[in-house]
Write a structure and sequence with these properties.
alpha+beta, OB fold (Dihydrolipoamide Acetyltransferase, E2P), 7-stranded mixed beta barrel, 6-stranded mixed beta sheet, disordered N terminus, disordered C terminus
Amino acid sequence: MRTFVVDSFWNNFNATLNAPLKAFIRCKVEGGYIIEIDGEKFFARSELQIPEGEIVHLKPISYSGGKIIFKLLSRQEMKENPPFSKTPSPDVLPFLTLSNLNLPITQERLKVLHSIVERLAKKLVQEKKSEYKPVAEPTLELGIKILNVAHVALKDKKVAFFALHHPVYRHIFIKVKEELKNKSPEDLTKSFSFFVNTFNFGKVLVNLFYINGKLSGTLVFEGPDNLKKARKRYEEIKTEFIFSSFIETLSWQWKKSNLLEEFLKEDLASFNLNRKLDVIL
């Protein structure tokens, strides 16, 4: 069986175990080939004799210890394993959790962690009158641990997740982040974010920032209609509260993107980049 061994698989490109990939052999170079996968070019170390311009099909068959083994599929095997039109993107949280714990990445482990993350996501978006049963505490704790382990290897920032018990929303999930690129106290950058699902205004992501000794913040809504309703309601009731210059300076925003995805995974965006693929026969 002819195989390719790939180092640092997750840091290089998105794929799913047992899902075939297309690779285009662009040209032969010293020690191997320049290949292209999903529009990204990589150097592949190989002793195989493959014609330039050839399209080959690779099937990931195992991943452990930072390396993935690809099987080079024959024409007959391609009929049995048709490729996806586009490489499916795996759930980044289970992948990075296993990788950072230095555990073999298997389908069984991915399914278990994915189910925990999925239940945690349901918890985040449930309403207070929802009939959805509360998540068991062990699952809640495991979900928080998955989030924290997935973020532990970030080089440019520290990210930590917590759960705050609330009488109405049961649990509010909080994210605290500190940028590490600025070393001096004057340039210190920290943020405090939390996500809630409200009755009248939908999902709201609250971000509070401490940058260069100054506080600022944003209120982010899913869609312009929810933002308008929330802003209108605030104008109606703000005279009932003590005036706050900080609240008045908050930036009101809306996005079409999934706010929950942004809250959980925005700091892991760099792991979707294809870079430094090392392919060995």
